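Translate sequence into structure tokens.
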Amino acid sequence: MITIDTPECYKVLKHYGLHTARAKFVDSPQDAIAFAERRDAPDPRLMPINLRYGALATVPAELDTEHAIQRAFEHLAKEGDDRKIIAQEATAAGTDIVISGRTDPDGGKIVEVGAPAQRAGRMVPLDTASAEFLATHVQAYHHRGASEARRRMIEHVLLRVSTLFEDAGVSDFALTVRLHENSYTVVDAWMKAPARLHLKERLDRHAHDRKAEDYHPAGRE
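Result follows.
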């Protein structure tokens, strides 16, 4: 079984039409600083970024100066193992939800939402009714944001994730999705697969229902 690195997971998610934070592996403070540069903007300030290892266990500090980036990189590097450091653009605060997927021993694939104690799941491929059920469960669990627009946004994400899970050769995954008022961003991801992933050239239009095709985030906050 292959564990797919976070930046590579993001490439897979983007291929299936999901919005992710920009991220890459960096091997020096200078590399991290270069990642934070606003190269095409007249504003010389650095874009706020996070530095971390692997999974997003805690919310990393936002770094927006060369000194802060260098100190954070050196602190991580002192831990003395061979894990790669990930630089990722900082994402505005919002409501974080977890979408995960697992493969049963009989080969069936299930998409789940919510924390372990309050989890709900449905078999893939998800249809509109299944996506609506899971989206409603997310809203009930968080006790806020129960608007029609937000429910449709969560459904959109779930339908795209269902297509990825069905088509991409992934056996297990977990995504942390940050919901904003009119948009969302995947801020963390891990995936496992029995072999190297081979992505399709493009998605067929019938891969999503009409809601997913028509959904367009209003933009990031």
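Note: The helical segments are 6-15, 29-36, 66-77, 128-142, 148-167, 210-214.
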